[in-house]
Amino acid sequence: MAFSAPIQDILFVLDELADLPGVLALPGFEDCSRDLVQAVLEENGKFVEQALAPLNRVGDRVSAQWADGTVTMPAGFAKAFHEFAAAGWQGLQHDTKWGGQGLPKLVGAPASENLNAANLSFSLCPLLTDGVIEALTRVGSPEQQSAFMPPLLQGRWTGTMNLTEPQAGSDLARVAAKAVRQDDGTYRISGQKIFITYGEHDLAENIVHLVLARTPDAPAGVKGISLFIVPKFLTAQDGSLGARNDVWCASIEHKLGIHASPTAVLLYGAGKGEVGEGGAVGYLVGEETHGLEYMFIMMNAARFAVGLQGIAVSERALQQAQAYAAERVQGQALDNPGRSVTIDQHPDVQRMLASMRALTESARALAYCAAGARDKSLRHPDERERAWNQALFDYLVPIVKGFSTENAVEVASLGVQVHGGMGFIEETGAAQHYRDARILPIYEGTTAIQANDLVGRKTLRDGGKVAAELARRMRATLAELQAQADSGGRSGPGTGASAAGATGAVSGSGELALIARRFEAAIQAYEQAVAYVLDTASKEPRAVYLGSVPYLMLSGFVLAGWQMARAALACCRIMPSGAGDAFHARKLASCVFYAAYILPRTQALATAILEGDGAANAALVICKK
Amino acid sequence: MAFSAPIQDILFVLDELADLPGVLALPGFEDCSRDLVQAVLEENGKFVEQALAPLNRVGDRVSAQWADGTVTMPAGFAKAFHEFAAAGWQGLQHDTKWGGQGLPKLVGAPASENLNAANLSFSLCPLLTDGVIEALTRVGSPEQQSAFMPPLLQGRWTGTMNLTEPQAGSDLARVAAKAVRQDDGTYRISGQKIFITYGEHDLAENIVHLVLARTPDAPAGVKGISLFIVPKFLTAQDGSLGARNDVWCASIEHKLGIHASPTAVLLYGAGKGEVGEGGAVGYLVGEETHGLEYMFIMMNAARFAVGLQGIAVSERALQQAQAYAAERVQGQALDNPGRSVTIDQHPDVQRMLASMRALTESARALAYCAAGARDKSLRHPDERERAWNQALFDYLVPIVKGFSTENAVEVASLGVQVHGGMGFIEETGAAQHYRDARILPIYEGTTAIQANDLVGRKTLRDGGKVAAELARRMRATLAELQAQADSGGRSGPGTGASAAGATGAVSGSGELALIARRFEAAIQAYEQAVAYVLDTASKEPRAVYLGSVPYLMLSGFVLAGWQMARAALACCRIMPSGAGDAFHARKLASCVFYAAYILPRTQALATAILEGDGAANAALVICKK
After folding, report:
1. Which of A85, A181, A507, A603 is the most buried (most CB within 10 A)?
2. Touching check for A447 and chain B: CB below 8 Å?
3. Which of A170, A420, A541 lies nearest to residue B420, judging by beta carbons?
4. Angle, nearest 10°, between helix axes B465-486 and B383-418?
5. Ranges for the Acetyl-CoA dehydrogenase-like C-terminal domain (chains A, B) (predicted)?
6. pLDDT digits (tens, 9 = 90+) for A430-464
7. What is the pLDDT averaged over residues B166-170?
8. What residue of A is the nearest CA neighbor of B437?
């Protein structure tokens, strides 16, 4: 299946919802015009469509292959990676000082989404490298930066994150890898790391591992962890590759999906290589015992990026399902028995396609708004704006990660269903998205980890301040919707279903009133849930944490629904006469569908959250040993 | 992962919810005692645990293999099938006249569930054979019955259903396979059939295909389809296998899951074999052009059986996740930081495990109630009881099929999530359930096909009569719950969460009140949805059919929730003092959790259904070409 980057929807979100004008007005982006943004994204779209999308199936079929400690990528991946590197895509949102383009995260986000939509397995390599670059940008020493940043940005070297060990998954307190300081200031690292994405491969000449390990005298738990740079090859005096370091790929995993992405078991200090005994040579990042704090920089970037992966897989699955449904003739028209139709004319298939679209577009809108907030948090001249945007971004990261990836599993599953029996046949391609998507709510922190973050650090810590401000802003949008609906929408009275069916447009006050009605109920559900979390957390923490994932999903549905409500208002501005182009008519329809069919989930979630006490007690009995 | 047949829960459902006593009192079951039922199910459990469960992984890994028209099953499958046949399991619920055990469907259902839970791919073979037996029982001629029933019941031969062709999936009007009558009364069948489960294999000596095909002068559409028996080998005069018929397996599919179940492309009339030119030799079942009607007999049996498969995969995924979560140590106790715990002590993992359990148990209860209704519809001495039970069974079949299988996808996905990163590794086994489960909402009629049946033939046709009677009966249960809750449950005032946590039991009126509160809201949601469907179907059919799957799911959640509410009342009867054994305490907790966390979905579904008009209009715009 060909992939087509959704440039029009991306630009709509940037222009109308994520405040691209405001971001481009920030200090440091003087050279970045709206035209440039569009040109970059169109170029990016072309690149991923042509160079990466065609490799998605072969990567799935062939998989990365391990033999004797080396990993061979599927045919075509190395060539594509060299093209990716040569075009400068790795440096898109990184500092010009190190050879990057210095573009806003708000531009980097859609570029990253497209990359992942074209080829999820491929894109994990740049995703991890982005994380290493982000960490070194913030906490690397000047020497570390000048040694590692240029080759990483050029795509000559790639990066990894090494957190997990067999006994230490979500629980980093259990990290046991050792780091022993040497007289020359370097460290020797030993231990085993698992689930290391692109821990070994043949795409680039060197791999820079960021590794969590424990120094001998460090305290127990997460406070005793330090962060180290461990390159696969050391750098020789002249800057060329030097000694082979003592880090080795013992095996790669046989996984449900993302087959082309090698998931490595790495052994540090096996006593091989060219650095002698005692472990792999590592360089301390920042100070000892601050490793987790630094790793969070990388993890926050990666969590946001994995949220984008969710949107990417959703977009890809949607395109595949749409194309199939538009071609597959089966059954007869509901309003004209006897006339054969393609299945995208059947109401149930329309429900599935519209659900896939609404979930994808709404998650995209929310994620890009978060990206814009990140840019403002770093560069806005007003300190209060910076602070609010930082708080907003921090609040949204677990939601973007959890919500977009849980949605991706649903969207990919619907994508299979649209295909009927053909969806279950591997050659069709829909099944790959269903398999690939399943890792997204797990890695870089499961949805539960995101949800605990949202409850603990993002809701309870500030006493619900950010949540209250969001509710206030959502109510302002609601008031605008209600005013527009009362004033007759764009074009006088609502046209009703049959007239709209005939003209092929959703229009008028009926639709805005529908959105307002459902959005209001969703805001109420959100407010109730936030109040419950604030009131109950200290009295019945088990009840609140039992409901943390529902709380995250509710927050996602309402905040993404807010963006869809704003999108509906934007469409009414753009199509004041009621007649519009196909894109905006479809976008408005997507907003209506989201309100009617997706937003009601917030009611069910709120009810469940508020019954948390009884549910938690029941769950405890159920799981009693 | 070992599998353990959930005999205790099965017996609870049979005894307390599905009226096993009433079924055993039916004419024809005089020889079947409660003790016999338990003994049969325990024996069945032992057989599937020992002979079938261990083959589940190897079947997935090795797959059925095609070469030169023959299919070789994974090692161990043939031996297991011979044991299955020798023990008489194929004939469990079939007529003693042909060598069956003649047990109620209410006993056959759990036996079939266990079979499928142990090994889904294996069990598809007996499932299809059951369908052929059912069809020949009702519409086969005496000659056909005596020729085919004994070897089918003995497991010497197996059966298949041949509906689908490349252009005819859900739309059987497009069936193009040809059947030409010969002078000797036989037919010659030619054409291509796809997606034929166990269409070729090496488990049995012969395969009996039931094939839909069209006679030359038949009308177009579904009314021109006839049904034929086409055996792989004809029967010689002495009853031994005769000439090789002209039906050939051209290939098998490379599928997302159920790898050991061969999904065949079958060619009829390729001009090979030992029956000469003109097509495969076939025998007309019943009369010409009544094929679809006969096939529906088989399909209804198969749809119900696929519903059981959904419960089976759910049970298997639940057991796998529970076992992993009980062993995996990660993180610290919420109420005692510093104490390491297994992950099944974390609230979010408890939410997932409890959700998996509640979805599985509720779907089981509903399916068994349907099975009991089927037995009564066939054998009850009172004609009105027969009629009501037939109407009830017909109403429930699409729900059991659609609801249980959609749940299975969710449960299997939660099962992966419970495992975290390990869930994505194929060797763990959780991923297989996620892949296997995905076919269930597709084959034997997609969820949309079930939902259209529920709306059209099961709700609109009788003007909502069955639905109204169900609502009335649910309200009776609700009244009972409310009365019990008001009278203080089993043991005086509710104990509250912390006390219950300490005693390890959910008990008292608080919990019954919770169930009553949520059940009442769910009944209201159901009544609203039914009324909407009845009111709107003729005015806005597109709105109603857009909401057909939500309508099916809503019906499933409330009807299964009804059984959970009845189960809660039964638990209170069984544990009148408030203290009970672990099984009933856990069952009551499962009912509470279902009410608190699953039933609220009915509100969201009802809201979406009632917004159907706006949503349908929007979906039409979204899918406009």
Report:
1. A507
2. yes
3. A170
4. 70
5. 510-616
6. 999 999 999 999 999 999 999 999 999 999 999 99
7. 89
8. A424
- Asked whether the beta carbons of residue A619 and residue B431 sit closer than 8 angstroms, the reply is no
Helix (H) or strand (E) holding B207: strand B206-214
Contacts with B350 from chain A: Cβ below 8 Å:
546, 616, 619-620, 622-623
pLDDT given at position A576: 81
Please give the single-letter amino acid code of residue A610. L
The nearest CA of chain A is from the CA of B258 a distance in Å of 10
pLDDT tens, residue by residue, B289-341: 999 999 888 888 899 999 999 999 999 999 999 999 999 999 999 888 889 99
Domain ranges of chain B: 458-625
Q: What are the phi and psi torsion angles at B193 (to 5°)?
A: -120, 140
CA-based nearest residue to B310, from B246, B247, B374, B403: B403
Answer yes or no: A444 catalytic: yes
Give the span between the Cα atoms of A449 and A444, in whole angstroms: 9
**Chain A partners of B460 at a C-beta cutoff of 8 Å?**
none
Residue A354 touches chain B, beta carbons under 8 Å: yes
pLDDT at residue A338, rounded to an integer? 85
* Cβ-Cβ contacts under 8 Å for B237 (sequence gap 6 or more): none
Biggest alpha carbon distance in chain A?
85
Q: What is the pLDDT of residues A115-170, one digit of tens each?
A: 999 999 999 999 999 999 999 999 999 999 999 999 999 999 999 999 999 999 88
Q: Would you list the DSSP string of A134-175? A: HHHHHH--HHHHHHHHHHHHHTSEEEEEE--BTTBSS-GGG-
Show residues of chain B in contact with A503, CB under 8 Å: none
Q: What is the mean pLDDT of chain B?
A: 95
Residue B519 has pLDDT above 50, yes or no: yes
Query: Which residues in chain A have their CB less than 8 angstroms from residue B592's CB?
Result: 614-615, 617-618
CB A412 within 8 A of CB A437: yes
> A444-478 burial, b for 16+ CB within 10 Å, e for fewer?
bbbbbbbbbbbbbebbbeeebebbeebbeebeebb
| CA distances, A553 to each of A224, A449, B351 (Å) | 33, 13, 14
Q: What is the ipTM of this complex?
A: 0.96
C-beta atoms of A623 and B334 within 8 A: no
The reply to whether residue A438 touches residue B416, judged by beta carbons under 8 angstroms, is yes
> Which residues of chain A lie closer than 8 angstroms to B443, CB-CB?
421
Of B414, B56, B2, B1, nearest to B258 by C-alpha is B56
How confident is residue B502, by pLDDT bands cut at 50, 70 and 90?
very low
The string of pLDDT tens digits covering residues A481-492 is 999 999 875 544
Is A349's CB within 8 Å of B582's CB? no
Q: Which of A134, A165, A288, A444 is catalytic?
A: A444
Does the beta-carbon distance from A421 to B443 stay under 8 Å?
yes
The pLDDT of residue A498: 39
How far from B195 is each of B486, B513, B518, B592, CA to CA, in Å? 55, 49, 42, 41
Of A169, A326, A330, the CB nearest to B169: A330
Q: Which residues contact A307 (CB under 8 A, 6 or more apart)?
A: A363, A367, A397, A400, A401, A402, A403, A404, A405
Sort out which chain A residues have CB atoms less than 8 A from B547's CB and list them: 351
Using a CB–CB cutoff of 8 Å, tell me whether B35 touches chain A: no
Annotated catalytic residue, options B444, B480, B511, B527: B444
pLDDT at B275: 96
- pLDDT single digits (tens) B219-249: 999 999 999 999 999 998 888 999 999 999 9
| Residue found under tokens 């729900």 | B399
Q: Which residue has the tokens 């004797």?
A: A68
